[in-house]
Specification:
19% helix, Hypothetical Cytosolic Protein, Chain: A, single chain, 2 helices, two-stranded antiparallel ribbon, alpha+beta
Length: 100
């Protein structure tokens, strides 16, 4: 028999852009959709320091402003599939309203 209990788990509730200070909460508006979280360990001989742990939280606006010329941007596979899917859905006619 399995007897379950609930334990509180820490989670990221809010992000703040390390560059401009813009904030986003996981459950408000677009949530974290317009943020990028980067986290990695630098390798030996890295300009970031041998074996250092690196983290960055940055909003898409700052990402575009700082790295824009070097970003290779193209439609994501899921976005193209969604667009194709939506094109095949019959849209109901919009009823005309009587003017007031």
């Amino acid at each position: 028999m399995r007897i379950k209990d609930v334990r509180p788990q820490p989670f990221v509730f809010q992000l703040r852009c390390d560059r401009c200070g813009a904030e986003a909460q996981h459950n408000v508006d677009d949530g974290f959709n317009n943020f990028l979280q980067i986290e990695f360990d630098a390798s030996w001989g890295s300009d970031l320091g041998d074996g250092n742990h690196v983290e960055l939280d940055i909003c898409h606006a700052c990402l575009k402003e700082t790295l824009g010329p070097w970003l290779r941007v193209s439609p994501a596979a899921w976005a193209a599939a969604s667009k194709d899917f939506m094109a095949n859905i019959e849209k109901p006619p919009i009823p005309k309203r009587d003017p007031l």
